[in-house]
Write a structure and sequence with these properties.
24 helices; 19% strand; 36% helix; single chain; globular; 5 domains; Helix Hairpins; OB fold (Dihydrolipoamide Acetyltransferase, E2P); alpha+beta
């Protein structure tokens, strides 16, 4: 071999070894990975290939010669009596068939080879050692030979039996004096989402993903998060020591573990050849997003334990098993630009334009950043290198920025102060994360606003449906809401699927819509947070549109049932010149309603009545129930007393229900409340 090529191979091997070791440290010890699993696998496979081609250049501390990371300072070491090996990967059916052929050649005869296929859980590997049936030590995989003693943390996982077999187990096999159970600790997706919801509510940064959250939970030394530990779930998949007599196959190992009280890794299947394992893998891939725990592939193992022993192992992995990985759902790419899109509801959504990258079988070129808070939290900037994934294998999203690859002199990105479509000043209400264009006639949201105007709870214009609205806007016949009242029979009759009769019916419906109530008109305007109940409150309080339009935020907030967010929304809407002009055009088109005498606090059919809410109402949010009660003159209290007239009890009521019964206060359900409201 030419000396220059050999030297290039040596330099590349050294570089790859350093890079992989660095990424191991970032992932296992610092919980801040910089690259995706797919990129890591690619580096590892390249190093393996180079070492196979040049075995004399293999470094003594090469990452291919060990499994994971060394124990961290602060945990005592645990030596695995039987090494906890990692698995080689197959990335496609051809590589899995090649594994099958290697197994057949190694066995050297015509014996049929049966496999067990299991889900590959996306968690952290651990070993549990039981002495005389009692949990003695729980440890991480570590480097495959030495792990970290995390027994105290593992005991908090309720799915880990402290004694085996668990009480009530049906006909379990006898438990040897010393048993080591191998498996994966993970956090089910639902529990992970609950953890993050609580963290966000407490103002804490959410966890990145279930796998890192589970691994990090095990390695807590101080200020231990018990809730995080309780969310862990252990899934068993192997025995290191203590295989009971009569257990001769991997499938019997899994049945034994189930009989002792462990959750298995998932639904496994016996496969007679590589094609059966491929078919199982494809079914698992199809069901991937319906799993309780995230999975990233399948594991295929020779079923007979004696054949496993005969096949043996290489330095870091067994010859009798392989991990068949799913297509990567994460990849690394570059943010080329960030743009603000205006949605149908007026929401301004930042969207990252990405250098095209292949993720999970499709090419991803953009990803929603949701809102300004999300951009700020992840600190995403133009020019950044980012990790992208397809959430649920469908929606592209940016997981995180890779700080070490950020170019110099980048700037934080901000949503524009004006709508990119109509140039109206954008508005972000207090307490909301979404920035919006408030302009009724913004072209980006005109279709949606027209459909809202025609809705039954608004002007109830029968015949003004989605397909007709599409034609009216796309043919430039309607440029603003008020234009719909200027349509004539000839124009309508010339549209697709519209004849003379349909045109007459729509015109008649538009005429009926002109005669409405102030509350319905307010709903038709589509003011943020103003639904039917709030519209009734405002109409009852102000009596007519002019005093409402002239009201300050403070005056609006003084209306019973109207809080600061609603008051800000209404005030901002009518403060916009474009909206006021459109309201006047609607009035000029013939919109009319009867003026009502303003109703002040304490007036209405429930005037003087005091209510207390407890439990969950199924038909309406609690805030809506409060608004409806106050709109009819009632008042809400947080405590039950002898002065309380009604306690409204929903599902799972609290101690307020008991207090009401003690005091003899009338208790009603949701149906009773609706009856009092006259609905």
């Amino acid at each position: 071999m030419p000396q220059d090529k050999r030297e290039a191979a040596r330099r590349r091997i050294e570089h790859l070894a350093r890079e992989i070791a660095r990424h191991d440290r970032l992932y296992y010890l610092e919980d801040r990975p910089e690259i995706s699993d797919a990129e890591y696998d690619a580096l590892f496979r390249e190093l393996q290939a180079l070492e196979e081609a040049h075995p004399e250049l293999r470094l003594p501390d090469s990452p291919t010669q060990r499994v994971g990371a060394p124990p961290a300072d602060g945990f005592s070491e645990v030596r695995h009596v039987v090494p906890m090996l990692s698995l080689d990967n197959a990335m496609n059916p051809e590589e899995l068939r090649a594994f099958h052929e290697r197994v057949r050649r190694a066995l050297g005869d015509e014996r049929p080879v049966e496999y067990v296929s299991e889900p590959k859980l996306d968690g952290a590997g651990v070993e549990l050692v039981y002495q005389d049936g009692v949990l003695a030590v729980g440890s991480t995989r570590g480097d495959g030979h030495l792990g970290e003693d995390v027994t105290a943390n593992l005991r908090a996982a309720r799915s880990i039996p402290l004694r085996i077999p668990v009480p009530g187990a049906r006909r379990p096999r006898p438990v040897p004096a010393r048993v080591s159970v191998r498996g994966e600790v993970a956090i089910p997706v639902e529990r992970f989402e609950r953890l993050n919801a609580r963290r966000e509510k407490a103002g804490q940064e959410p966890f990145a993903n279930p796998r890192n959250t589970a691994a990090g939970a095990l390695r807590q030394l101080h200020d231990v998060d018990r809730e995080r530990l309780a969310a862990l779930e252990f899934r068993a998949y192997a025995l290191g020591e203590g295989v009971p007599p009569g257990v001769a196959t991997q499938s019997q190992v899994l049945e034994t573990l189930r009989g002792w009280g462990f959750l298995p890794s998932g639904d496994w299947q016996l496969c007679v050849d590589a094609d059966g394992a491929i078919a199982y893998h494809e079914r698992l891939l199809e069901a991937r997003d319906r799993q309780r725990i995230e999975i990233d592939g399948s594991v295929i193992k020779v079923n007979r334990l004696d054949l496993q022993a005969e096949l043996g192992q290489i330095s870091r992995s067994p010859r009798w098993a392989i991990a068949f990985k799913f297509p990567p759902r994460q990849a690394t790419t570059e943010v080329l630009a960030i743009e603000a899109n205006v949605g149908r509801t007026g929401a301004l959504t930042p969207v990252a334009k990405l250098r095209p990258v292949h993720v999970g079988g499709v090419t991803v070129t953009s990803a929603s950043l949701h809102n300004q808070d999300e951009v700020d939290r992840k600190d995403i900037r133009v020019g950044d290198t980012v990790v992208v994934q397809r959430a649920g294998d469908v929606i592209p999203q940016i997981v995180r920025v890779v700080p070490g690859r950020r170019p110099a002199r980048t700037r934080r990105w901000r949503l524009p102060a004006h709508c990119p479509v109509c140039k109206a000043a954008s508005v972000r209400l207090e307490g909301e994360v979404v920035t919006r264009c408030p302009n009724l006639d913004c072209p980006a949201q005109l279709k949606n606003n027209l459909l809202h105007l025609a809705h039954r709870g608004a002007l109830d214009i029968e015949g003004l449906g989605e397909k007709l609205v599409d034609q009216l806007v796309e043919k430039d016949l309607v440029r603003r809401l008020s234009d719909v009242f200027g349509l004539d029979r000839e124009t309508l009759a010339g549209l697709e699927r519209m004849g003379e009769k349909s045109a007459e019916n729509l015109l008649a419906s538009l005429e009926r819509g002109r005669s409405t109530t102030l509350a319905r008109f307010l709903v038709a305007l589509g003011i943020r947070h103003v639904g039917e109940t709030v519209a009734e409150l405002l109409a009852a309080h102000f009596g007519d549109l002019d005093p409402l339009m002239a009201a300050s935020r403070e005056e609006l907030e003084a209306v019973p049932g109207v809080g600061p967010t609603i008051a800000e929304s209404v005030a901002s809407f009518f403060a916009d010149r474009r909206n006021r002009e459109e309201v006047e055009r609607l009035r000029a088109s013939g919109m009319r309603w009867e003026r009502e005498a303003p109703r002040r606090r304490g007036e209405g059919p429930l005037a003087g009545k005091s209510f207390v809410l407890t439990g969950t109402l199924t038909g309406m949010p609690r805030a809506e129930a409060k608004s409806r009660i106050e709109a009819r003159g009632g008042k809400l209290s947080g405590t039950v007393s002898k002065k309380t007239d009604y306690v409204v009890a929903g599902a799972e009521p609290g101690s307020k229900l008991d207090r009401a019964r003690e005091l003899g206060v009338e208790v009603i359900d949701e149906a009773g409340l609706l009856a009092l409201l006259g609905e």
